[in-house]
Write a structure and sequence with these properties.
Layout: H1 7-15, E1 20-24, H2 30-43, E2 49-53, E3 66-72, H3 86-93, E4 95-104, H4 116-125
Parallel strand pairs: 1-2, 3-4
Length: 136
Amino acid sequence: MGCGSGQLLIRFAKSVPGEYVGLDSWGGDWQYSRSQAERNAALEGVETVQFVHGSASALRFPDGEFGRVVSCLTFHEVRDTQDKTVSIGEALRVLEPGGKFAFVDLFDDPGLYDGRHQALDAIARAGGTVKSSSTP
């Protein structure tokens, strides 16, 4: 979620064989940005990644589609919903039972969130559990 130029996803694909999907909204010029992510993958010799356009707040994937979901500094950038923690629920929805979700965002920034409890509450509402939550 929020793959941007694809660098993190490409690194995963090079480390652990498998099929990978990167999602990003990429803004108004999304076709160009997606083509850049695809070009980055090609330059790295990675053929098992697919880049799709979409919002983290409304994932176009079925429930339980993925064994792992990763997001790095994406949720605070979601612009199509007031409650940016909706994306956490979406990530957990597309995660298969027993799957892993790893994410980082600016939950302690009072200009963006009311606090970390917003993220923890969203995880609980979606039926997820927290294995690790670092403190500032």
